[in-house]
Amino acid sequence: MTSTPARNTTTWWRESDLRHHMHPFTDTKGLAEAGGARIITAAEGVTLTDSEGAKFLDGMAGLWCVTVGYGRKALAEAAYEQMMELPYYNTFFNTATPSSVELAEKLAEITPDGLNHVFFGSSGSEANDTIVRAVRHFWNLEGKPGKKTFISRTHAYHGSTMASASLGGLAAMHGQADLPLPGFVHIMPPYWYDFGGDLSPEAFGLKAAQAVEDKILELGADNVAGFIGEPIQGAGAVIIPPETYWPEVQRICTKHDVLLIVDEVICGFGRTGHLFASEYYGLKPDLMALAKGITSGYLPLSAVMIGDRVADTLISKGGEFYHGFTYSGHPVACAVALANLKIIEDENLVQRTHDETGPHLAKRLAELADHPIVGEVRSLGLIAAVEIVKDKANRGHFDDLGATGTRCRKHCLEGGLILRSVRDTMVMSPALSITTAEIDRMIDILHRALDRTAKDVGMG
Ligand SMILES: Cc1ncc(COP(=O)(O)O)c(C=O)c1O
C-alpha cells in the first residue's frame, strides 16, 4: 500500500499539482514524467527559493514583470491599506475609486504625449483584446467600416485570448485553436540575425519596414485598422530591431492612415533603460498596451493608453462602450501600481538601467560573443538575448531547433540561474533592481552553462 504524503510537503504539493492543476504553456504529461513541478515558496530581491531550500537567481523577473524585485514591503502595505479601506469596487456604471483615478492621471502624465486616456484590465491579453474592440469601434464611428484588419508580425506575442493570440504570430498557438481569427495577418519581423541574409542591419530594417507597406498596399489601406508591434519582441527571443525600422514603420502608418499600436507590456516601465521604448525609438503610438511592470507583477493589472484622436472619437461619437471587466481599475491593483511607480522613481531605476546596469550587462554579454556556440549577443537596457548556433559564420542553427537551448537552460538551472530559452536563444530580463555583482553572477553561470552545452553537442 502506498502511503499518502503529509500535506504541505514538496511531495504532496507535486502530487496534488499533477492530479488537479493544469499549468499554462505546459505539457502536463511531460511534467508528470519529469517528476512534477518545482514549487517556489519564497523570494527576496532577485532570488527565488524553492520548497527544498534551493536558491535561484531569477534572470527573468518572473515572466518579465517583477521590475522592482521581490520582497517589497511598500507594495504589500499599499495593498493592505487599500484592502482595509476599500477592497473592491468596480468602475462600471458611473463609479470610480480614488486609486483608479489617481493611477489614470499618473499614466497620462508619464506616457508619451497625446496618450491621455486609460482603459484598465487585468492582463496584457485583456489590454490587447480591448485594443481590437476599441479600434474596430473607432473606425466604424469614423465612417470607415472597411478598416478592420490588423497587421502583426511572426514571432510576436500579444497574449493568449482568442483575439490577442490572433494578433500574436506564434504558429504553435495558432495551430491548436484554428487561429488567427479572420482579420489578423502577419508579416516578417525585423529579425536581422535570422532573416537579414547579406544585408546590413540598417538595410534589413528598411526592408522589414517595407513589408508593412507592402501588406497595406496588398490589402488596401481602406481595409487596414492598425499595425501592432512590440518595440522589442520579447517572447519571440528578444528581437531588437535595427535602428532604421521603427521610424520607417511610423512614417508608413501615418502615410496610409493605419493606426500604430505599440505593445509595451514587456518594454514599458524602464526595461530598456527608457521609461517606455516608444521614447527611445521616437514613436508616437495611437494606442499603447501596458501590463507586467505596472505593478511589478505583485497584482494583476493592465492598461490601454488611448491616444487623443481615437479617444476623442470614441467619447464624442461612441455612446456607451459595451466592453469592460469586473476587475477593470481594481482599487487594490491600482494602489499597488502607484506604490510600484513610486519605487521606480524614488530609486531612479530607469536611469540606473540606462547608465549603469544596462551597460554593465552589455559589457559582460560581449565577453560571450567569442564562445564557440554563440552566434550573437544583443541587449538594450536589461533585456537581452544570446543566440546559440551550430555555425557561427553562416548564422546556422542546430537541426533540432530548441533542443540545444533547452539543454543550456537546464545547465543554467543546475548552476542556480533561471533563464528562458526560446528556440535556441537564451533570453533574460532581470529585475531593474539587480546589482552589477548579481549581473556578474548571472553571466558567470550562463558562461559555464554554455561551456557544458558546447560539450554536450561536441563543440566544446
Ligand atoms: C508583449 C506582450 N504582450 C502581451 C502579453 C500578454 O500578457 P498577459 O500574459 O498578462 O495576458 C505578454 C505576455 O508575456 C507580452 O509579452
Structural overview:
The protein has 460 residues and is of the alpha/beta class. It has 17 helices and 15 strands. The radius of gyration is 22 Å and the shape is globular. The structure holds pyridoxal-5'-phosphate. Residues 63, 123-125, 128, 157-159, 230, 234-235, 263, 265-266, 291 line the site of pyridoxal-5'-phosphate. Pyridoxal-5'-phosphate is lined by residues 63, 123-125, 128, 157-159, 230, 234-235, 263, 265-266, 291.
At a glance:
By secondary structure, this protein is of the alpha/beta class.
Mean pLDDT: 97
User: What is the CA-based Rg, rounded?
Assistant: 22 Å
Shape: globular
| Strand composition percent | 15-25%
> Structural class, from secondary structure content?
alpha/beta
The number of E-state strands comes to 15
Give a short account of the largest sheet: 7 strands, mixed
> Regions with pLDDT < 50 over 5+ consecutive residues?
none
Q: What's the N-to-C terminus distance?
A: 48 Å
Bound molecules: pyridoxal-5'-phosphate
Give the proportion of residues in helices: 40-55%
Number of DSSP helical runs: 17
Order of strands, widest sheet: 4-10-9-8-7-5-6
